[in-house]
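Cross-check.
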Amino acid sequence: MSEQSMSERSPAGSSAGSSADRTRSAILTAARTCFAETGYDGTGLRAIAVRAGANVALIQRYFGSKEGLFLAAILPRLDVSLLLDGPMDEFGARAASIMRMKVGRGFDPMMALLRALATPSLAPSLSAALSRQVMAPLAARLEGDEPEMRAALILAHLAGYEMLLRVLQLPELAEAKAAARETALATTLQDLADGPR
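Predicted model, tokenized:
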């Protein structure tokens, strides 16, 4: 093949690549929206395809299955770097502040995960992802005894807080003053981060 024919094909190839990237991105965006609105079980591939302007065959080609799409849409957004960005003696206050700021701020991967927990077939994938993406980095920053267990307890507190406040809207939490809620959560999380004294 000549140099000229290779360079002539390159723009078309990159155009096709960027078109595929745009389609893949549109599918992921549509999936996040659908999963946030109707949960894992309530979301069908057809609804995602319609919202993305794609078709179900493309979704299956890019992601393999609904579970593959869910994991591809949710897991990259499950980022603990903000929680870990700073001194660990300020972890509780930082985590509680992040929890307060994210309420009502669009797509929340933790809420999507919590809603998906009702689907037993997802449990192994979600457990592995949470261990790898949340608990392992957190445990690596915790000093003292049993950092893995304490990281799991921190995650349990954050997930429980989300579930009770935002899904169940438990009156004792939902009606409490935001500052009091944040202070109590910060204290509990900091105690877990510090470990036994």
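Residues 95 and 101 are 10 Å apart (CA to CA). The chain has two domains: 3-73, 78-194. Passed to J.P. for a second look.
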